[in-house]
Input
Amino acid sequence: MSGRATLHYLDYSRPRNRVLTQVLREQAKHNGTTLFLRCDGEAYNYSATLDRVRRLAAGLGQLGVGRGDNVCLFMASCADYVFLTLACNFLGARWIPVNTDYRGTWLRDTILESEPKLVVSDLQHQPYLEAASLPKLQPLLRDDHSPPNIESLLSNAAKGVEPAEVDYGETSAILWTSGTTGRAKGVMQSHNNWIRAALSAAELGDVGAGDVLYNCLPLYNSAAWVANIYPALISGTTVAMDPGFSAGAFWERTRLYGATHVFTLGAMHMFLWNAPELPRDADNPVRSANMVPMPDAIHRPFRERFGIDAIHQGFGQSEVMLLLRRKDDGQTAYPPGALGEPAPDLEVALLDDGDQPVPPGETGEICVRPLAPHVLFNGYYNEPEETEAAFRSGWYHTGDLGRQDDQGHYFFVDRKKDVIRYKGRNVSSVTVENVARQHPDLAEVAVFGVPSDELEAEREIMLAAVRKPGAKVAEEDLARFINQNAPYFFVPRYIEWLEALPMTPTQKVRKVELRGRGVGSQTWDARAAGFKPVH
Output
């Protein structure tokens, strides 16, 4: 922790203190009157939080939830969402956040494969549960007017319960991956996995007394917990929470809450940047931000426009949480696109398909090895073969490809399944997509590999795209555009126009589905059309 941290007495080198429920008890004991959570008109200090969590745990226990059980949470972000996760952990149970954008078969499969003892939802999302036709499922509705609901749990369990004795390596939660490159998998997260990432986030942002962390990410996203909720918990500070992100209201909400720390993901900060400039842009309480990924070209201009002292970045995935981090300390100069340094409790290596290190400048799979117990995830839920396949030769294989320059800086290349082996070259689908997106007539684009007619081990490049309304760009025009703006071997052999790209409920392209469809009758073939890229 940094020198500004509130809780010098909570020794996180002790495994006992790396259990979320134990942290909450210590905060309530020594820091009880400090505000922990604000959500619109609701506000709870640490003592009130502990009391509500203990009573919720007792109520869940009366509904049959016990040690080792799973509880699915399918509802909008709210204060009780946070309290329910801690209540589950009080019982030694595991909480499973379910994306509220899930519908139909995707929702049904996610919940069934979670094997929940209980599903907690709300009136807003109840119709989607009913439409999914889940057998023998009677959800507990948070805001229903008739019991059982959250208030009835609280009133029927006025005394609460004491937390179960759990080890810091036990699974606290199960998070489902997005399923972009294959079927979704349940990532089992230990208490320690959350806390190590939260400690790093708190240290990165120099979180200390009086700080307020603002969260507008959905609570089914691990980043909400790693960057905001748990850093506040482990440092004894405050997290302010809104149900969602609004570019138009973002800075006003930070002023309302007095937020000193913010976290944005994906295009969120680009919406803020592209909004019309206002005289009040820099008039906000934010001093530290974590914005992933922040384009290097606007990093400093963004800081200056909005009056932010530091903008940090990080790179990770659910299985590792924090893997690499890039601290904006005002002194370290990173080359464009660099990911930062490895987390201190991990060893990172770039390995080839034979699990041998690749030299600087060459692409290898980003692999990690923990330097302490319970740093990585506990495996995939009910997927022992998938778990075993992910851990090989003493390393966890992330499925992400990267490279390292002569100075030791790491750079992301692509997902391993999205790199196309073509005529002896490894072509990044992301790089080809970035070139194609520069064409003014394209609305969406996805690049992937399909089997080669000539060599089984290689793939041909295929591009699926959606035209902008009214655009009439032809396949050959697009191929020529890519040829003019990139190496000739980036030009796809196959191009197909689609009405829409297949997406996951989290709005990520399902390339596994595109690869499965492959080349069809409507696919343009450059070779058959006689198109030859200019070398």
User: Anything to note?
Assistant: The longest strand covers residues 395-404. The chain has 16 helices and 26 strands.
